Amino acid sequence: MAENQVEMIIKVTDVYKKIGNSQILKEINFSIGKGEIVGLVGPNGAGKSTLMKILAGLWAPKPKGECYILGCDVTKEKERIEVLRRASFFIETPALYSKLSGYDNIELYSKLKYGSTFNVKDEINRLAPFFELENNMLKRKAKAYSLGTKQKVGLLQMFIGNPEVLILDEPFNGLDPTVTIKVKELLKTRWRENNITVLISSHILSDIEELCSRIIFIKNGSIILDKNKEELLKSNTVVIFHFTEKEHVDLACRLIKEKLPHVSVETQFNNSIKIHNISSYEDIFNLLQNEGIKVRDIEEQRMSLVDFYKQLYLQ
Ligand SMILES: Nc1ncnc2c1ncn2[C@@H]1O[C@H](COP(=O)(O)OP(=O)(O)OP(=O)(O)O)[C@@H](O)[C@H]1O
User: Fold this and answer.
1) Which of 65, 200, 230, 234 could crosslink 15 through cysteines, CB 3.0-4.6 Å?
2) Domain range 8-233, its CATH number among 3.30.428.10, 2.30.42.10, 3.40.50.300, 1.10.260.40
3) Which PANTHER family does UniProt cross-reference here (predicted)?
């Protein structure tokens, strides 16, 4: 491979998925290079979990499509076994054996994946603090676990044995903020030290914005945008107008919508409005001044992923 050529770790080609008469995925194409952390976002029912199940080899693409991870075809059983050894898949709520303790669940998972001689104990001791999992909790049977604890144990398993690839579907569901912060730090450390490749889906856009260098947006089973995060957010700014009087908020919104229909405007809580899609805010300032609306302050901000998502999906 040439030096400047990035090794493709995940390659999805022309994937379709039909269940019954419903076309769940259409013409899905993307590649993920080594060391990329890619976010997959989209509304409920867009097809994110379906795509991840296909990548995990749990579902076959139908009527057509190809998925390769680490050069292995996930639809071929022998090659899929190689993928399952080198990659970790966190798909939906983790299935733990309820009669086994958390510790024994992790041990069973690890030995099935890496063989009976694998040293699980050291790995668990190293990883447990990131998940705030105390020893006495890990010794309890999984049937006594809360949803969040099951999530923590299931997610801890994903990091056992330094996998090269992580495919994570809604990994932060049900985790408290402390654990979420620690797990994100763990992901970043693994990325820095081992150059792991990650595909992560989440509705928590601030987590995607923090972690991912590239974002794939999906809607009704199709990719509608696949772009580098910095390029996506750097090129767009939002402007916040702060008013001295609360009554002026609605008035300003109505006025902007009427006179400048191409501008997107939304009200904020603190006597202010947020405006997207403008190259200069002078026109708006003049419009408001002419109507006697008193502007206390104007603030320019970099667009957040939430702002971008609103533009892409809600307008
Ligand atoms: N087993 C199934 N049988 C029939 N339809 C299904 C099945 N699983 C998913 N679907 C449908 O496929 C579509 C995509 O579902 P999927 O779970 O992939 O979406 P998602 O983007 O992960 O949504 P969410 O954000 O709600 O998790 C939905 O319309 C869903 O109803």
Assistant:
1) 65
2) 3.40.50.300
3) ABC TRANSPORTER ATP-BINDING PROTEIN (PTHR42711), ABC TRANSPORTER ATP-BINDING PROTEIN NATA (PTHR42711:SF5)
